[in-house]
Amino acid sequence: MKRIPAPSRARPALTRERIAATALALIDEAGLDGLSMRVLGNRLGVEAMALYHHFPDKHQLLDAVGDALVAQWELPARGTRPPLARLRHLVRSGRASALRHPQAFALVTSRRLNTPRSMEMLERVLEAFADLGLEPGESARWLSLMGAFASGHAMAEVAPGSPGGQPDALPGPYWQAAAPHLQPDQLDAVFESGLEVLFDALAARLIGPPTR
Amino acid sequence: MKRIPAPSRARPALTRERIAATALALIDEAGLDGLSMRVLGNRLGVEAMALYHHFPDKHQLLDAVGDALVAQWELPARGTRPPLARLRHLVRSGRASALRHPQAFALVTSRRLNTPRSMEMLERVLEAFADLGLEPGESARWLSLMGAFASGHAMAEVAPGSPGGQPDALPGPYWQAAAPHLQPDQLDAVFESGLEVLFDALAARLIGPPTR
DNA sequence: ACCTGAACACCGTTCAAGT
DNA sequence: ACCTGAACACCGTTCAAGT
């Protein structure tokens, strides 16, 4: 007969998921520099060294935080929408996740995650390209292009300005003209216009000649 | 009468440029984690604290390393080539710089550099878009799209695999089919195909209707 | 102005020990 | 199996002092 764990006032048991989620919250509050094993342990009501029972080192813990971000990406199920709509939803939800966790997003771009969840996500994206009728080589190229755009755009949005530093160079006339169109309240539109260029090009490819 | 400095066997004087260049070399060898003020000072034949006379803190030093990478980007002069060719050369040279300094490239994407050199680069890129006849708003969008692609692609190329970690998820059939097309020796072609999509779309926009 | 040297308040990680 | 506590070899940065 399995013992039912006694109801306790103590914090719930340490798990990889709970550690990663708490680490993400800590990064949201204090930045990547603010995450230390000691502070994280303290937040979890435990000594720093207890974390090493669940992760071999800090890098792997950071990978788990990146994996938790990937878990926020939404790729609609195969039957629910056309492939292009599924892919567009994925890219938008990925950006939304990055904007929710600006300080943590670098964890996704600076390390090649090969967790089961990331691999599954890749598989589903490639499936969508295949559903469009693309060959594997073409799928690989479009995956790379869409991924580069999405991660590059999100990264540019969340990158903090240099804190202080030398007196900023005085902007030239072209920059002064373009700057209003790159203000925070314009970035939705800027992102959408980039997305449109890519998806229009992909759609054109689908009805165009098989080899260009 | 100005004193001519005595010819000395000692290391040349500390300057921001020499410190940043040495820091870049150190990052190339030992990664971002391998760069510490003490190790860098030692490499320069100086105590760590001497560096603080040239940079207020480590973050600003890292900005200077990022700036040194931007200095490697080549944008041909205005008269030498058509605007599209100039921009293509810039994107290619930026990727080449990233591949030469894979461990340092994250410094360019994770911080918004507003050094004089970066601002000047932005200005020259916007000038090229203007030379194509684009309005400031359109220039801002294409700048964002090209920048996102270039930095996102380069970042994906230089990102290291997760070091050890959990047993990698077994790849699915779509991934197995696509993987050969994403091997290192294929990435030149993958990059060029993405570049082609973007530049074709931009060229089409130039001869197409002004508002879509 | 430029650099040193000691000190402070931290790090990630090891190890042996507890339960 | 899971966690503690002390210890080790580092960090970035401060401060007062040297020249």
Describe the model.
The structure is a homodimer of 212-residue chains. The first copy, chain A, is mainly α. Chain A folds into two domains: 14-71, Homeodomain-like (Arc Repressor Mutant, subunit A), CATH 1.10.10; 74-155 and 177-212, Tetracycline Repressor, domain 2 (Orthogonal Bundle). Chain A contains nine helices and no strands. In chain A, helix 4 (83-100) packs parallel to helix 7 (136-158) and helix 7 (136-158) packs antiparallel against helix 9. The model of chain A is unreliable at 1-9 and 162-166 (pLDDT under 50). At the A-B interface, helix 3, helix 6, helix 7, helix 8 and helix 9 of A face helix 3, helix 6, helix 7, helix 8 and helix 9 of B. The structure holds a DNA duplex (19 and 19 nucleotides).
What would the keywords be for this entry?
homodimer; 212 residues; mainly alpha; Arc Repressor Mutant, subunit A; Tetracycline Repressor, domain 2; 2 domains; 58% helix; DNA-binding
Number of domains of chain A: 2
On the 0-100 scale, what is the average pLDDT of chain A? Answer: 91
**Weakly predicted, low-confidence segments of chain A:** 1-9, 162-166
Mind telling me the C-alpha Rg of chain A? 21 Å
C-alpha geometry of chain A: flat
Q: Quick one: biggest sheet of chain A?
A: none
Give the quaternary arrangement of the chains. homodimer
Greatest contact pair? A-B, 70 and 70 residues
Care to count the β-strands of chain A? Answer: 0
Number of helices of chain A: 9
Q: What percentage of amino acids of chain A are in beta strands?
A: under 5%
